[in-house]
């Protein structure tokens, strides 16, 4: 599988959104200027590039793991399929999700490895995995998970400080030692089959707190606030793409932005290739209640008070929240257009009809 630098180049004539570039080394060093850049990105678009993350070798190894697991026979992979009950860990086959209100089936497949299983290996916390995943658990997956968690801790500490929360408040909701929906993922999507652009993942917001994505090609698109046009996010060698998820949006009373995005086939010559990506999805501890932390921060309290009543009081814990979202997009659970909309996380965000699909 070629690396990002050996793929056909991203087309120059494609509209892209210029994400803010945040230097992880400077965040670690507590540099005020870099912290301000991160805060601006996290509160305005909710997406940013992260450089100097030190994960390039770990990411390459994760792609290798994904390739080894993807080439297993389908009947073997299906032994580890997520199922229709909202499970997050294992194999997601192509065609098992609905990608639009008409119930169109998706075409992407991916492997999800639980943070808990990776860190506890060889002890099983959630589920077993096939031999190619097991063989890489110690050498590849665990280092990738640990370094992703390290980055998340640093970013959460910045958000805690900027939100005026007590020290460690967000970290306490994302304790590594507690079971959660955190996972490492490798995704493969097929080449574009025809002239029509077909969604791989429809317009949505992420379920959890933070996402760190490493792309091989283009295809990720964002819808900036008040925009009526989708913009690609250009993959750049060595830069991860980070974004805020719904959980941090809720904890912050809406201050941290969980922005709408989708995934389509790569543009230009890249469309003739399979689309690969690797990501780490940080989610709160299973027992964490998703609600605004208004009692701990005057800033959060003020923001939450301006929202519709109940907007940031979900009455559910992270485990149930994620299970609803994951299970809701399964094709076997598809009932109608209104029911399908519930999985996307955009219940409180109006998407202009011109960019809905």
TrEMBL record:
The keyword Zinc-finger belongs to this UniProt entry's keyword annotation: no
Superkingdom of origin: Eukaryota
InterPro entries: DIOX_N, IPNS-like_FE2OG_OXY, IPNS-like_sf, Iron_ascorbate_oxido_reductase, Oxoglu/Fe-dep_dioxygenase_dom
Keywords annotated in UniProt: Iron, Metal-binding, Oxidoreductase
Signal peptide: none
Pfam families, A to Z: 2OG-FeII_Oxy, DIOX_N
GO molecular function (one): oxidoreductase activity
Residue ranges that the Swiss-Prot or TrEMBL entry lists as coiled coil: none
Family as reported in the entry's similarity comment: Belongs to the iron/ascorbate-dependent oxidoreductase family.
Protein name in UniProt: Clavaminate synthase-like protein
Organism this protein belongs to: Dichomitus squalens
């Amino acid at each position: 599988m070629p690396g990002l630098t050996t793929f056909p180049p991203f087309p120059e004539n494609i509209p892209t959104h210029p994400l803010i570039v945040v230097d992880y080394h400077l965040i670690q060093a507590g540099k005020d200027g870099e912290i301000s850049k991160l805060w601006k990105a996290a509160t305005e678009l909710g997406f940013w590039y992260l450089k100097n993350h030190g994960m390039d070798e770990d990411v390459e190894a994760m792609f290798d793991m994904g390739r080894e697991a993807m080439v297993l026979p389908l009947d073997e992979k299906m032994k580890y399929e997520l199922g229709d009950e909202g499970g997050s860990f294992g194999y997601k086959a192509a065609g098992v999700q609905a990608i639009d209100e008409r119930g169109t089936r998706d075409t992407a497949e991916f492997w999800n490895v639980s943070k808990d299983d990776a860190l506890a290996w060889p002890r099983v916390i959630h589920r077993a995995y096939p031999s190619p995943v097991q063989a890489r658990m110690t050498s590849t997956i665990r280092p990738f998970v640990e370094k992703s968690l390290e980055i998340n801790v640093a970013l959460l500490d910045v958000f805690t400080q900027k939100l005026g929360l007590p020290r460690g408040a967000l970290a306490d909701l994302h304790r590594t030692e507690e079971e959660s929906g955190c996972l490492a993922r490798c995704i493969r999507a097929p080449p574009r089959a025809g002239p029509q652009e077909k969604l791989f993942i429809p317009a949505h917001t992420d379920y959890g707190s933070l996402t760190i994505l490493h792309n091989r090609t283009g295809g990720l698109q964002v819808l900036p606030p008040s925009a009526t046009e989708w913009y690609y996010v250009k993959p750049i060698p060595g830069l991860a793409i980070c974004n805020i998820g719904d959980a941090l949006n809720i904890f912050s009373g809406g201050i941290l932005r969980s922005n709408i995005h989708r995934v389509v086939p790569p543009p230009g010559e890249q469309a003739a290739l399979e689309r690969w990506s690797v990501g780490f999805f940080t989610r709160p501890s299973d027992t964490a209640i998703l609600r605004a932390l208004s009692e701990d921060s005057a800033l959060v309290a003020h923001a939450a008070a301006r929202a519709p009543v109940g907007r940031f009081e979900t009455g559910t814990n992270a485990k149930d929240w994620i299970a609803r979202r994951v299970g809701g997009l399964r094709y076997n659970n598809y009932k109608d257009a209104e029911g399908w909309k519930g999985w996307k996380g955009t219940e409180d965000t109006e998407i202009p009809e011109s960019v809905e699909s």
